[in-house]
Amino acid sequence: MSQDNMIKLECTECKRVNYFSRKNKKTLKDRLELKKFCKFCKKHTLHKETK
Asked: Considering 5, 11, 15, 39, which has the largest number of Cβ atoms within 10 A of its Cβ?
């Protein structure tokens, strides 16, 4: 994967980086928000894109 398209997804509850993903930064200008499973909280939480 190319590094310029990589993003980190951070849990909004425990503030830990759990997932790495990629997105097209030309078409998606705003930050990505997904509901994913956090293994530290042990439940589905909202994960937001960080720098």
From this structure: 11
Nearest to 40 by CA among 6, 2, 12: 12
Over residues 11-46, the pLDDT tens digits come to: 999 999 999 999 998 998 999 999 999 999 999 999
Q: Strand (E) positions, 1-51?
A: 6-11, 17-22, 33-38, 43-50
CATH no. for 3-50: 2.20.28.120
Residue type, 11: C
* Cα separation values, 16 from 1, 9, 20, 22, 44, Å: 22, 8, 12, 18, 14
